[in-house]
Each structure stands twice: as C-alpha cells, then as structure tokens.
Amino acid sequence: MIPVLRTERLVLRPFTLDDLPALAVIHAEESFWWYPLRRAMSEEETKDFLHRVIERYDSDGFGLEALEHRASGTIIGWAGLAVPHFLPEILPAVEVGWRLTGSWRGQGFATEAGVAAVQWGFTEGGLDRIVSIYEPDNTPSGRVMERLGFTLERTTSGTLRGETVRVLELTREQWELRTEAAHG
Q1: Collapsing DSSP states into helix, strand and coil, what is residue 17?
Q2: Which residues of the chain carry a pLDDT beneath 50?
C-alpha cells in the first residue's frame, strides 16, 4: 500500500488519474524537467508518465506521489520513493526523489518531503538502503541529498539517456545514527 505522508507543510499522497490536469501544467514548465530532458513534457507524455507511476504502485510496491501544499491543497510537484528503472546498473534499489514547480523551490519543501519519504522507507517500508540520483549541475538537489545524510556511492553515465549522474546512498544504520544524534 502506497502511504499518505503528512509533514508540517506538505502531504505526499498517491497519484490518481484525476491529477492529470494539474500535473500537465506542472510538467509543461521547462525548468521542471530540465534535468534530464532539457525541455518541458507534453500533455501526452505527462499522461504516459502518470499511468506508469500508478502502474508501478502495484508492480514495484513504491511510487512517486503527488506533493501537495497542506494549507492550499495545491499540487506543487511530486516526491517519494520509486524504483529507478532508468539506471539499471544499480538495481535492485529504491530511490528517494522530488521535483517542485518553480515558485515552490528554495523553501525547504524538497528536504521536508525527502525526510518524510526516507523515514517511511526505513521504518514502515522495511528498506535497508535508499539511493538518490542527480546530475552534477543540479546542485540544489545535491545539497538536499547531503542535508538528508546521503553520501556518494558512484558517478556513472549508465542511464538510458547517457547523461552523467551521481548516485548517493543512505543505509538504515546511517539514518538511525543520524536520527539518534539529532534527537539525543
């Protein structure tokens, strides 16, 4: 079952087909998909994306979730845990990831969503390791990963599109130590 996660300012919830209109607007923003596409997504591509995400809830047991701003109910992007099928060389793996629309970036929402997804993954999800992946030029995402405690596992160009990416990882043991230190 795909969880509904609530933080102080956010709700991460499973996507439904009813989310297509809002998601199409977000995906039409070129900066949303700059890494890795270097362009916006069409409505048809967004529809395919949404169907694939919903199908993977059953096939993978994990999937990206709609990221809602709690106070307004606005979908501001997506976040959560997913199997990184686009990077076969690291499979099996579960990745934590996020994407936010432009006006919502730089306010700590990616970190907040990442913390919630990682916590669920290591507690309720029963994971022993979570990865996070970014292109080196996408320094804001890299900084979020560092804040979450991820460390470099490898740099590769093994993606389906051939772009260079950094794969960071966090183990349950590392996460538990960080959590204890923060609350101890």
Answers
A1: helix
A2: none
